[in-house]
Amino acid sequence: MNDKLYLEKAVKYLGKLLNAKPLRNTTEIKEVKETREYLNGMMYEKKKIRSKNANSYLWALCTEMGNILRLSKEEVYLNMLKSYGQVLIIPVEKGTTPNGFFKYYEYETSSKINGKEADWYKVYKGSSSFDNREMSILLDGVIQECNNLEIPTISDNELEKLKATWNGE
Description:
This protein has 169 residues and is of the alpha+beta class. It has a domain at 49-166: NinB fold. Helices cover 54% and strands 15% of the residues. β2 and β3 (116-124) form a beta hairpin. The longest helix has 18 residues, at 26-43.
């Protein structure tokens, strides 16, 4: 798809959101997701790539937290995304969910929009698609949570070295 078509779609869906119209079906949800991903790619085209070491470390910490809290690493991870991650709130037609389009989401509320029933969902971006800044915020938060639970973490110096690798330093 070319830039002009994506921008036209973005304007269309932004208009719907500004006019508080819910997305009507899974096709519209998919188009919004694709458009958002494409536009994010355009905006952050030159973003610095971070290593997978940070994501691996994040999951290791989530596993340790889960062992102490008696939760699965996935439950801990979702809680960390909710606390320190990126969120988007989207309306969808009542009875529709963002399942299959977004991996991490939760129901927020229902309301009427222009006389139509809509369900609102919080949609969380997964850490594998985070840029350096977003990953830094998430990892710092998870490390703080681990410190609160007395789970050993890497030193501040080691953390800075890990973050420096994201910038190719």
